[in-house]
Amino acid sequence: MGTTSDKIKGTANEVIGKAKQGIGEATGSERLQGEGAVQEVKGKGQKAMGDAKDAAKEAIDRAAAAARRTTE
Q: Of 46, 64, 52, 36, which Cα lies nearest the Cα of 8?
């Protein structure tokens, strides 16, 4: 999965998870609140994975650029 899709799916899961929690609170459904909390955490993890992939790609790009400069 690419960094953008990780971040998009993560944001969607966070939003849906928060909504489930809110509905669960409003209806008194502990199950729905729990599902929402799990989905929100999953979304945060997906976004973190996208950020980590971005950071790794940037580090690789910087290293490659530095290597090119030293061989020129």
A: 46
